[in-house]
Design a protein that fits this description.
Blueprint: H1 7-108, E1 113-121, E2 124-131, H2 134-145, E3 150-160, E4 169-177, H3 203-213
Antiparallel strand pairs: 1-2, 2-4, 3-4
Length: about 210
């Protein structure tokens, strides 16, 4: 009977399995290395993208900060311009008020009264003058209280000076200034504003007269 020796075939099969194992092991190692490099490349790309985004955001933030600085400068300039405008408007209003005020001072002066000094302190005027009689001073105060630009006259003094009957009484009073739109605080029953008599001096003449007398 013939016999078959299977040892060489089994040895060859074992060697083939070993070769297959090492081949699969090498392929797995190569795949792992490739995957590691791919992951590293992907992470590098992510880091670069994030860096680019950060740089872009930093640039935008700097631009916004620059714009905010410009806005603050514009607001500061605007505030200064508004303050100057307000000052100019106040000066114009004050100049207009002074013109009306001197006209009103002249208009309210009755016959027998002459002013010698006018001083302004804030929203009040200190007026000094001479009159023929105390009644003329009272009439002058009533005229001031009925004025659109003055109110609340207060007599400070009245006394006889010298022998000149035309300028016998020397007086001093204070009166508060107001705008025409302010409510009139004069006492009820204040007489109507007297009409300017013929030949009444102008505001410039009254100022000149007050300056020369003082």
């Amino acid at each position: 009977m013939a016999t078959i020796n299977l040892l060489p075939w089994r040895a060859e099969r074992r060697r083939q399995r070993e070769r297959d194992f090492y081949t699969m092991l090498g392929a797995a190692a190569a795949a792992a290395v490739l995957a590691w490099f791919a992951w590293g490349y992907w992470m590098d790309m992510r880091i670069e993208d994030q860096g680019a985004r950060n740089a872009y955001l930093s640039g935008e933030i700097k631009q916004l900060e620059g714009k905010l600085t410009e806005i603050k400068d514009l607001e500061t300039t605007k505030a200064k311009l508004l303050a100057r405008k307000q000052i100019i408007e106040q000066l114009q209003a004050s100049r207009s008020q002074m013109v009306h005020l001197f006209d009103e001072l002249v208009r309210t002066i009755p016959e027998g009264v002459r002013l010698t000094s006018i001083k302004q302190s804030g929203n009040a005027l200190a007026v000094q003058g001479v009159a023929q009689a105390n009644g003329d001073v009272s009439s002058y105060m009533r005229n001031l209280n009925s004025s659109q630009w003055m109110q609340g006259s207060d007599l400070q003094k009245t006394e006889i000076k010298g022998d000149d009957k035309r300028n016998r009484y020397e007086f001093g009073l204070t009166v508060k200034l107001r705008s025409p739109e302010q409510p009139d605080v004069a006492a009820p029953g204040t007489p109507a504003k007297p009409a300017a008599p013929a030949g009444k001096p102008t505001a410039q003449a009254a100022i000149s007269s007050a300056g020369s007398a003082s």
